[in-house]
Amino acid sequence: MDASAAPLREAWYYAAPSARLRRGGVLARKMLGEPVLLGRDDAGDVFALRDICPHRGMPLSAGAFNGQEIECCYHGWRFGRDGRCTAIPSLVSGQRFDLAAVSVPRYAACEVQGNIWVFFGEDATTAPPPPVLDSFAPAAAPRLIETMRFDSMIDHAVIGLMDPAHGPYVHRAWWWRTRRSAHEKAKTFAPAPFGFTMQRHAPSSNSRAYRLLLGGNVETEISFRLPSVRIELIWAGRYAIANLTALTPVDDQTTDVNHCIYWTAPWLSALRPILRPYVRAFLRQDATIMERQQQGLRFNPVLSLIDDADTQARWYYRLKREYQRAGAERRPFANPVEARTLRWRS
Ligand code: FES
Ligand SMILES: [Fe+2]
Predict the structure, then answer these.
(1) CA distance linking residue 85 with residue 79, whole number of Å
(2) Last residue of a domain, one of 77, 104, 119
(3) What is the pLDDT of residues 264-310, one digit of tens each?
């Protein structure tokens, strides 16, 4: 894989739903090809460490965590939440060994609105921060979360999910849309921090369903931001819904698509059991098409991205390239996206 296709390291990635990690618990994850241990300590704070014991390579997540320290299951070496080694039980008195020489690499971790994010780079202060949904309280948590693993490298997973032209072909379903429902669309886009936004507008499709569910006039705004976050906000009357889709590279070939839905209308929670199979079916359609696409991509074909349907894909590549360059040249990121109206038929 050439360097530009590798996932951005100076970036926060979605790691897990907060609710999956209890106090005194750990979770094992693979992100950006690295084994990651997520933990929540006694005080409720999350942390992330490389999930490999520096002694002889045992996954630390297989050990015991007491809310303060993690003990490796092989020879009992212990590590603090900062990754520093605190004890080597096999040492006897008189054997001098500097514990400070042993540590596990630590990643920055944080929680935002019910999700845990991990940072892989050097400087989190200049990186795009994990997204905060303005219409929702800081303590809000997703009402529904679905994660699906895609056999697709991160770039194709990202542009596949932003792609406006595949809907009528891939997501054909009686409850969603048919090929015949395709029509011409024009949407206004503007640059946004580390990405771009499809400006607030009345949605053409599905608006009837939203109006029935929520009442009031429906408006929607969709934004994308590096490294791989898409946010769709829907307002109707006093209520708001947000679809947060955050993609995490598992390794060079695989991407986790994490889809979180937030809503403020309390009665929508009653629909959750009905909603979940729809969300899964929708994601499954994308996963299947991208798996098939891999069969062609393996031959490294030259691709033809066209205006305007593929413009968002081009913006993604330009944003990513600029972010890599700005980092290499140690200068501020300059958003390459220009305000524009894009037109396509879908
Ligand atoms: S491998 Fe972890 S203590 Fe030996
Ligand atoms: Fe799709």
Answers:
(1) 4
(2) 119
(3) 988 888 988 988 999 999 999 999 999 999 999 999 999 999 999 99
Closest C-alpha to 72, from 83, 89, 60: 60
Gap between the Cα atoms of 46 and 22, Å rounded: 10
CA–centroid distance, 284 to ligand 2, in Å, is 9
Q: Domain range for residue 105? A: 3-119
Residue entry with tokens 């889709």 = 245
Cβ burial, residue 276 (10 Å; 0-12/13-18/19+): middle
Report the CATH number at residue 183: 3.90.380.10
Residue among 37, 49, 53, 85 to mutate when testing ligand 1 (max atoms within 8 A of CB): 53
CB of 293 within 8 A of CB of 152? yes
75 lines ligand 1 (CB under 6 A): yes
Domain count, the chain: 2
Whole-model pTM: value is 0.95
Distance from the CA of 159 to the center of ligand 2, in angstroms? 10
Structure tokens belonging to residue 321: 């390239």
Partnered with residue 244 across adjacent β-strands are 231, 260
Main-chain dihedrals φ then ψ at residue 71, nearest 5 degrees: -110, 125
Q: What's the rounded Cα separation, in Å, for the pair 167 and 103?
A: 49
| Rounded Cα–Cα distance for residues 53 and 103 (Å) | 9
d(CA 311, CA 308): 5
Inter-CA distances, 306 with 214, 293, 315, 318, 338, Å:
37, 18, 12, 15, 17
Amino acid letter for position 118? V
